[in-house]
Write a structure and sequence with these properties.
By secondary structure, the chain is mainly beta. It has one helix and 17 strands. Magnesium ion (MG) binds next to strand 8 and strand 9.
């Protein structure tokens, strides 16, 4: 009798604890209104950035090995630590004005994003980047930058591989380090600590478009983060957007862009950037 009572008690307590999670289950990833809910005002129905955020499950942590990547013989070196000759401002195409010192370039947020003078279609890309050791802020406001695999216009137009502090810095998983922003959740989190150099090795297959601008074939991306696979031939749905659903804008060749993000955290640095064009 006593055992039965305890069994019943344990089950009831379990249900009480689980109830709030069950209550959340019917929410759509978009957080859209429940069918039949009272009509929203115009202000309430406006799209919000939170509608496209996904917060779980959280990718597992993997500790990367110590070393990855100098340029092979056929690479185009986009930054060798000395100057920004291969780069221009995304805004007005004038020479890039980020700081170059000690073999690295550091984002100057007031100057905005920078992009390559050269245009690319399909390629293999190597980029190294470092979140400063004294980084502050949290979530998307902590070391946010990005590598746009194709810059199709001003600002954040294009296809962004997210750069962000991912070392004990929770955020929505489709916007964490190693994500294809708001589209591809990384397979694992291979982050190093702030203050340590990190690597991205990317294989990018650009989208193809028909003469009328419609999509012929989608873009695919494979990404190794600190030598660890985080995107495995991932198919994109269109340009990566802060708000709303992805869409395509036809292009053939485009620059590679590095993001100056508007948050207030300390600026990040890049070094050893090279690319191999794929036929
Ligand atoms: Mg970013």
């Amino acid at each position: 009798m006593r055992t039965k009572f305890f069994r019943f008690f344990a089950l009831a307590a379990g249900l009480a604890v689980a109830a709030p999670f069950w209550a959340q289950a019917p929410l759509t990833p978009q957080g859209g209104p429940t069918p039949g809910a009272a009509p929203q005002s115009q202000a309430e129905s406006r799209p919000r950035p939170t509608e496209t955020e996904i917060w779980g499950p959280i990718p597992a942590v993997v500790t990367p090995a110590a070393d990855c990547g100098a340029p092979p013989s056929d690479a185009i070196v986009l930054f060798d630590g000395k100057d920004l000759d291969e780069w221009v401002s995304n805004k007005d195409k004038t020479p890039a004005k980020w700081t170059v010192a000690d073999g690295a370039m550091t984002v100057v947020k007031a100057e905005g994003s920078i992009e390559t003078k050269r245009m690319f279609q399909d390629f293999q890309l190597h980029v190294e980047w470092k979140i400063p050791a004294d980084i502050s802020g949290s979530g998307q406001g902590r070391g946010n930058s990005g590598v746009f695999l194709a810059s199709t216009g001003p600002g954040d137009d294009g296809y962004e591989l997210q750069v962000l502090d991912g070392y004990n810095n929770p955020t929505y998983v489709n916007g964490m380090v190693g994500s294809i922003y708001k589209q591809g959740i990384p397979l694992v989190n291979a982050s190093r600590k702030p203050g340590e150099w990190q690597t991205y090795d990317v294989v990018w297959t650009a989208p193809r478009f028909n003469d009328d601008g419609s999509l012929k074939s989608p873009p695919w991306v494979t990404v190794f983060y600190n030598g660890v696979l985080v995107q495995n031939h991932f198919q994109l749905q269109g340009q990566t957007l802060f708000i709303g659903k992805p869409f395509y804008k036809a292009y053939t060749r485009a620059p590679i862009k590095l993001q100056a993000h508007g948050d207030k955290s300390e600026p990040i640095s890049f070094r050893n950037i090279w690319v191999r064009e794929l036929e």
